[in-house]
């Protein structure tokens, strides 16, 4: 039976191992993780743990005894330093190594570090250990500056504001969430945060971080604690050692195969060929889990292309932002107000005027409806929606 | 800490001592109850914690939020009037003796 080695122990890695066992695959499985904590849910780090502290019984991906029960070898606190595709070996940073027949690379993404002086004074948030460290520093701070107005930066800002801190978000672009969300919704999210007391400064670049604040080209912003939320970059260093193709992540085809035989990549690190033929890389729990499920089938003998509908959420204070579908294909967007402000939906249509994505604020019903309809492959035309006054429920009943 | 019984569709069951204040999903996960994944960590986003309640009225679990109800719709035909998402139910002493059936059969969904 072929030994399957999985690098990483995040959402993608653990789901892959679990799905392999669910499919009755009895191959030996080894999971190698640079982190020392038992595999856990990452999202609570920026929503709860930095302000409430990380509990002893933090949210695990699987029960503690799962790995033993399922005969999965879990090596914690071990970093893979290089991969030899021809010799089918991974090498550990601590010395030694391990042979594999199949290698699943699920190393995730890591916070972008800004090339500015003093950036070491602005920790970023990724791991549970980061959450512990930031929690202990945050409790003593009254004023907090967050560099970066992306999802994680805003979640951190909102959590800190709710816990009573005076928070400033510093964004280089003219608007927060610039690359990730319909501008109209980004504008609304900004207003909600500002009404909640968060100060958002846009269009400034950070020049220096000091223990007492941030120097920008627009002036100095004092803060007891500066945090960095400047987005993420895929971890590709290992793939480089294996001479894999790299372009905005580890390049894989629709079967999540790299260009080296028997080496696959899933999760945040994988830049894959989507069903629409476009290259995509997502940083989301859904993407990690669903790619893991597809790959587990392939590894168990049933070649499976990855084709799941993307979805994502971000909880920022009172805001529940949800997205379903691939808005990268959108050529037109229609904004629809809900009954209870700030409830709103952005209907994204592709060139054929078919609904390709729906972005919502505090409108879980619409999120769920669109996700189900789009996953089921239903074609929802702009005209049909307009005829129903963009009442999604009514339009879907027709 | 109330005792809660998780039953599988094949009739097997597991009774766990659930921690007050946690959600049913987290307690199921902690005890390795098969079929409950909690993929979204309890954000009411994934429906991988779908359960059926037995005698919900008796335990004061008769009402359900709109958010939970619509998320359950993702489960399609598996949904019954007793369907709930385990991550939206907080464990309290009143749940002593509650029995739920897990909607999915494997660790996976
Ligand atoms: C603070 C935070 C909040 C988030 N909130 C949300 C949210 O609300 N909703 C959502 O959908 N997504 C959210 N995300 C994104 C989501 O967590 C990721 O998309 C998901 O974790 C990706 O899973 P993964 O398995 O690809 O990688 P990861 O979960 O990042 O796991 C990768 C693992 O591989 C290990 N590793 C890397 N290189 C090596 C090596 N060489 N040797 C050994 N181990 C290695 C890493 O240490 C890590 O443990 C959030 C992310 C963060 C950081
Ligand atoms: S854990 Fe995702 S909906 Fe309950």
Can you walk through the features of this model?
The complex is a heterodimer of chains A (398) and B (109). Chain A has helices spanning 11-22, 44-52, 66-69, 128-138, 151-162, 183-195, 237-241, 285-299, 364-375, 382-387, 392-397; strands at 4-7, 29-33, 72-76, 80-84, 89-92, 97-99, 102-105, 109-111, 143-147, 166-170, 199-201, 206-210, 213-216, 219-222, 225-228, 232-234, 250-251, 263-265, 270-273, 279-280, 311-316, 319-325, 332-337, 344-349, 355-361. With 398 residues, chain A is α/β, with parallel strands linked by helices. Chain A has three domains: 4-47 and 55-108 and 235-299, FAD/NAD(P)-binding domain, CATH 3.50.50.60; 111-228, FAD/NAD(P)-binding domain (3-Layer(bba) Sandwich), CATH 3.50.50.60; 318-397, Enolase-like, domain 1. In chain A, the strands form seven sheets. Chain A has a five-stranded parallel β-sheet with strand order 3-2-1-7-18. In chain A, strands 21-22-25-24-23 form a five-stranded antiparallel β-sheet, with helices on both faces. In chain A, a hairpin with a 2-residue loop joins strand 12 and strand 13 (213-216). The longest helix of chain A is centred in the last third of the chain and has 15 residues, at 285-299. The radius of gyration of chain A is 22 Å and the shape is globular. Chain A starts with a strand and ends with a helix. The mean pLDDT of chain B is 91. In chain B, a hairpin with a 5-residue loop joins strand 1 (3-7) and strand 2 (13-17). Helix content of chain B is 13%, strand content 19%. Chain B has one domain: Beta-grasp domain (Ubiquitin-like (UB roll)). The longest helix of chain B has 7 residues, at 24-30. In chain B, strands 2-1-5-3-4 form a five-stranded mixed β-sheet. With 109 residues, chain B is an alpha+beta fold. Chain B starts with a strand and ends in a 7-residue tail after the last strand. Chains A and B meet through helix 1, helix 8, strand 21 and helix 9 of A and helix 1 and helix 2 of B. Flavin-adenine dinucleotide is lined by residues 7-13, 32-35, 42-43, 45-46, 79-80, 106-109, 125-126, 152, 235, 238, 267-268, 283-286, 288, 312-314 of chain A.
């Amino acid at each position: 039976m072929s030994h399957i080695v999985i690098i990483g122990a995040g959402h993608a890695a653990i789901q892959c191992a679990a799905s392999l066992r669910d499919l009755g695959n009895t191959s030996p499985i080894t999971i190698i993780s640079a982190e020392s904590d038992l595999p856990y849910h990452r999202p609570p780090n920026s929503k709860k743990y930095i302000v409430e502290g990380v509990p002893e019984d933090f949210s695990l991906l699987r029960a503690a005894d799962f790995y033993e029960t399922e005969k999965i070898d879990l090596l914690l606190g071990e970093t893979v330093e290089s991969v030899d595709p021809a010799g089918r070996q991974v090498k550990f940073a601590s010395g030694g190594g391990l042979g594999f027949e199949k290698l699943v690379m699920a190393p995730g993404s890591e916070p972008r570090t800004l090339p500015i002086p003093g950036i070491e004074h602005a920790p970023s948030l990724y791991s549970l250990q980061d959450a512990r460290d930031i929690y202990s520093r945050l409790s003593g701070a009254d004023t907090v500056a967050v560099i970066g107005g992306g999802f994680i930066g805003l979640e951190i800002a909102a959590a800190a504001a709710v816990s009573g801190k005076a928070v400033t978000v510093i964004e280089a672009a003219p608007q927060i969430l610039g690359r990730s969300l319909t501008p109209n919704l980004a504008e609304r999210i900004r207003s909600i945060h500002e009404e909640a007391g968060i100060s958002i400064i846009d269009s400034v670049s950070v020049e220096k971080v000091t223990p007492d604040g941030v120097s920008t080209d627009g002036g100095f912003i004092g803060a007891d604690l500066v945090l960095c939320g400047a987005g993420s970059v895929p971890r590709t260093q290992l793939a480089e050692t294996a001479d894999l193709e790299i372009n905005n992540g580890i390049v894989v085809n629709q079967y999540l195969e790299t260009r080296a035989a028997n080496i696959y990549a899933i999760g945040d690190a994988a830049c894959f060929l989507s069903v629409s033929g476009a290259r995509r890389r997502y940083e989301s729990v859904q993407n990690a889990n669903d790619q893991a499920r597809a790959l587990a089938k392939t590894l168990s003998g049933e070649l499976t292309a990855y084709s799941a509908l993307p979805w994502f959420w971000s909880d920022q204070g009172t805001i529940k932002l949800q997205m379903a579908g691939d808005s990268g294909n959108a050529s037109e967007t229609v904004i629809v107000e809900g009954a209870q402000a700030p409830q709103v939906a952005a209907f994204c249509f592709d060139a054929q005027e078919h609904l390709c994505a729906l972005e919502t604020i505090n409108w879980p019903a619409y999120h769920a409806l669109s996700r189900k309809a789009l996953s089921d492959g239903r074609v929802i035309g702009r005209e049909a929606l307009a005829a129903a006054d963009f009442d999604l429920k009514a339009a879907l009943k027709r | 800490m109330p005792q809660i019984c998780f039953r599988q569709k094949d009739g097997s069951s597991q009774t766990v001592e659930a921690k007050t204040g946690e959600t049913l999903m987290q307690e199921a996960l902690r005890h390795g109850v098969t079929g409950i994944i909690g993929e979204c960590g309890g954000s009411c986003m994934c429906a991988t914690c779908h359960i059926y309640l037995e005698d919900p009225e008796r335990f004061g679990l008769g009402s359900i939020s709109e958010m939970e109800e619509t998320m359950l719709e993702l489960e399609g035909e598996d949904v019954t009037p007793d369907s709930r998402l385990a991550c939206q139910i907080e464990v309290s002493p009143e749940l002593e003796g509650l029995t739920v059936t897990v909607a999915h059969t494997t660790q996976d969904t």
